[in-house]
Amino acid sequence: MKNRFAVTYEIVTPESAEHGDVEEHGYVLPGGWRYDIDTVLADKEGEYRMTLREAIGLVGCLEYTSNARCYAEADGTCDYIDGSHERKALHLPENITPASRRRVDRILRAERFFI
Description:
The structure is a single chain. Strands 1, 2, 3, 4, 5, 6 and 7 form a seven-stranded antiparallel β-sheet that branches. It is globular, with a radius of gyration of 15 Å. It has helices at residues 14-18, 37-42, 52-56, 98-110, and strands at 6-12, 24-29, 33-36, 62-64, 70-73, 77-78, 85-91. A hairpin with a 5-residue loop joins β4 (62-64) and β5. The chain is an alpha+beta fold and 115 residues long. 25% of the residues lie in helices and 29% in strands. The protein has one domain (6-110).
């Protein structure tokens, strides 16, 4: 499962929340580099997937979601100056098997990433 995990982010501001939208969203790469979705869609050759170890290093405490393909950050981060809220999600490979999904769950539990 090397280089198949992705970490995405979304930033919601008070203004964007009024319209039921997000201010910005896209992918996060190791080192904390953020690429908004417009850049990702324009860059046909970019690689936005990584190893599980790299992905774990980019997210905070995760909560199990009903979505079988991702885990979302439980709290995210809040910027108290402008009121924006950022939340990340760890996405599993598209072709992950149930057995591999259980292994990822065990790894995340061992690392105490679940609340």
